[in-house]
Give the backbone structure.
Amino acid sequence: MILPSVGIGVATQAVTAGTAMNWFTRLLLVMLAGVAALFRHSATSARSAN
């Protein structure tokens, strides 16, 4: 009776950790994309200003 509950707990933790990692990776990618877009926009603005 104890072993199945431990297995379920470990599986739940593994799934939660995986979801958190996916979420963190997605957040990082979105931030990088945002920074790249900002940088590209500022570079384009500077080039068009001159």
Q: What stands out?
A: The mean pLDDT is 85.
